[in-house]
Amino acid sequence: MTGIGRLRFPLTPRDARKLRSVARPSPFGLREQTLHDPTVRNTWEIAPGQVKIATRRWKPALARHLRTLQAELGFPEGCTLDAVFDKLLLYEPGQFFKPHQDSEKSDDMVATLVVLLPSQYSGGTLTVEHRGEKKTFRRLEGQIKDLSLLAFYADCTHAVSPVKSGVRVALTYRLLRGARSTYAPPPPHTDLVDQLTEAAREHFAVPLLSRYGQTEPAPPERLVHLLDHEYTQRSLSWDHLKNADALRVAALRAVAERLDCVCFLALAEVHELWTCEDDHQGLRYGYGWDDAEDDADETDAYTLTDLEETDIELHHWLDAEGKRLEGIPALVGPEELSLTRPCQDLAPFRSEHEGYQGNYGNTVDRWYHRAAFVMWPRSNTFALKAQVSPEWAVDELLALPPASAPALTSRIKALLPRWAHTAGAVEEPRFFAKLLKLSTRIKDPAHAHAWLHPLGAHRLQNQAMRRDLVTLVDKHGVRWAKDLFTEWTKRPTWDTPLWAPGLADLCEALCVSRLPSCEALATWLLDREAKAARERCLTALKLQQPWLDLDGFAEPSTHLAHVLAAAAAASASGCLDQTMTFLLDASRRLSTPFFLHLMQTCFARSPALRAHLTGSPLHRACAERLAAVLDAPARAPDDWRIVHPLRCTCTDREVLSRFLQSPDQDLDWPLNKQRRQHLHHVLDAAKLPVLHTTLRQGSPQVLQLRKDPSLFTRERAYRARVKALASALPALPAR
Ligand SMILES: O=C(O)CCC(=O)C(=O)O
Ligand SMILES: [Fe+2]
Fold first, then answer.
1. Which PROSITE patterns does UniProt cross-reference here (predicted)?
2. 671, HSE (Cβ side, Cα atoms, 13 Å)
């Protein structure tokens, strides 16, 4: 030993002290970092360069032991192990090493070897966890002169409990797959491959309806098998799979070959959410030293109860040649998953325990690094990539030569089960133009319908798209088109844009084609939308109309204008007449601002509609309304009267109306809470220039109404707008 000379064993307390004088406190390797944390690791360490071992005798002895270890660890014949000396560790009383995994410093590292040198000590037991099983290796009384060798797989969690007396001295070695290893897993048994093939065939054949965003039952696209051991980006490769993983993957690769599947290795990031019960005494999860009086373990103690949620993400894909692959969906669905070793048996790399949270109970989040063998029928690659990039998929399909219709059909069919979700997530308008273009090449009407489903009527935004639509209607007929538009106009979410603005252009394109099916569709669309717009107007009429607010009912009036414009574009005189009649009929009930807004929008909507409306009875009605506003004398500066119809039917309406129409500016009105609230609501809805507050005094409290001077400014602004509107309207032709 550099600095102190030769050591004899069993180690004497004097030599132990000397050893300690040349040692340094151990750092602790946590994945990529090296930390000094005496609460995790508290030992003395001596670097390999300072230690010289009597190689002549030790080398053959170690080689013999390595052969035994190789067999015991389950490495097959032909797979030799090399031991690389790592360090010498010295544990004095109280020193320990908390549960950890050794960082795999090279891809070839398969296990750790601990050689315990002869010395007297108690405590310091080594606990190793593998596949949910824990083994404790204790120093026995008579072992003072023994050399003990302990080896465990590199991904095992292990720990050393505090030494109680004496000193514990250990040499640690990294066990590597030997450079001369000729090991290749034996060819898998035919019976096994037969059985697995059947299971995989069934997996890829049975349609399920279980996936997010899926609209029709389809078999899982992939089979994802989680491996037993843990791997890092560096250590994951086809040639370096550990033990059982190597055998299993060899069998699965044989299956993949038989079923014409492609196969991959990938890293799997697993997150689990468990409910748990906190342990207050007794039962504990996690590591506790076997000796009860030793309480060095301060981790949370809990018992897992139910697995509530699992999400698995795959990344770092390697194809069968070991090349990187991208563009495959990362999330693994439960229907794709297979595993032999549950995560519970592994050590999570991160875990978060939420103690008692009132109603929520206790939960633990756990994250694991795992790896997976993934396979899928070669023909599924397209559908899988399309899930990540539907834009790419549509471009690929458009690039197919027109002669390859069967290829197009089969690829489109593969995309359909999830298409509504996949394509529905795209925003880009150009994507939808391509989608529509491609649909003209689809023969089957049902496929074409499902393919176009995500588009939505509001996206028919340019001439080329409308022309494609004409082609489709001609090909599949009006019935098909009506079904499509019924779906397209459903507005899946509240923020889906309205499609009525595009109706006029669409009707025009349909009618210009002169195809009977297209004309029939235009008529149907128009009548349907006209009805919807009328209903919307009737609904608005039932509501309290705002005072002198030209934009108060902009939505229903704009909708009606779109419909009238579409009817004009399609020269649909029936629809035009019907809508005009409806409006004239309703005009008595429409407040002047509403009516004027409607006319303004209609005249501005399109030249064709303007031409239709000029001189119409509607135009005359509008001119009368304008004149009525403009001819009325301006409000006198002390005139506080407000005339405005109130929609409500409550008993207080009378009093309120009387106050509004009176020259009075104020009203203090004791009212119970319910009636006060109702009146607040009525005044707000009517947008009246009246301040309304509650004086929190007396019983009942007092509703205070105060007419506001904005009465005068708002009225002036309104008259100015009406004036501008009058000059923008075409002159009424002389009768
Ligand atoms: O001292 C031991 O037995 C184990 C040491 C160890 O786990 C390590 O060095 O990583
Ligand atoms: Fe270790």
1. FE2OG_OXY
2. 21
Give dist(CA 69, CA 639) in Å, integer.
105
Angle ∠(612,615,619) on CA atoms, nearest 5: 90
Per-residue pLDDT, averaged over 604-620, amounts to 93
- Please list the residue range(s) of the chain that carry CATH number 2.60.120.620: 13-177
Residue 343 per-residue DSSP state? G
193 neighbors 186 (Cβ within 8 angstroms): no
Q: Where does CATH 3.30.1370 sit in the chain?
A: 653-708
Reported ipTM: the value is 0.98
Query: Which of the four CATH numbers 2.40.30.200, 1.10.260.40, 1.10.10.10, 2.60.120.620 does domain 13-177 have?
Result: 2.60.120.620
- Over 70: is that where the pLDDT of 115 sits? yes
Question: Within 6 Å (CB) of ligand 1, which residues are found?
Answer: 89, 97, 102, 114, 126, 158, 160, 170, 172
Which atom, in ligand 1's list, is nearest to the CA of 29? 10
Mutate to test the pocket of ligand 1, among 97, 135, 169 (most ligand atoms within 8 A of CB): 97
Query: Is pLDDT of 32 > 50?
Result: no
Please report the pLDDT score of residue 278 as a whole number.
75
Q: Which residues on neighbouring strands pair with residue 169, listed in sequence order? A: 90
Query: How far does residue 105's CA lie from ligand 1's centre (Å)?
Result: 15
pLDDT, tens digit (0-9, with 9 covering 90-100), for 580-610: 999 999 888 888 999 999 999 999 999 999 9
The fold for domain 653-708 equals Ribosomal Protein S8; Chain: A, domain 1 (3.30.1370)
